[in-house]
Amino acid sequence: MFTAKTFESVEQRNTRLSSCSKSTTNSDLQGKVRLTLDFIKKCLDVSVNPICLTSFGKDSLVMLHLILRVKKIPVIYFREPFFQSKFEHPQKVSQLWDLDVY
User: Fold this and answer.
1) Mean pLDDT across the stretch 87-102?
2) Contact predicate 78/90, CB 8 Å
3) Which pTM value belongs to this model?
C-alpha cells in the first residue's frame, strides 16, 4: 500500500524549485512542463487507482490537461444544486476531452 511518504520521497527528488527563479522564456517554460510531466508520471506510477478532483476552472484545467498527457484517469467534479448555468462549461469540456466524470 502506498502512503503519503511515497509521495514525499517523489517530491523530495523533484527539481521544480530550481527552475522557478528564472525569468520565463519559451525554453524555460518547456523545461518546466517537462519537469512537471516527469513529476506527474512518478506520482501516477506509485498510485493504485489515481483520480483527479477538478473544478474545471483555469488552474484545474491546466493541471488536468497535463495529467491527461501522461495517462487518462477518471475525474471527480462536485456539482452543487445551485446555479445550473455554470455546469455548461464542465459539460462541454468533458465531451470535448472524452472524460469519465463522476
Assistant:
1) 93
2) no
3) 0.70
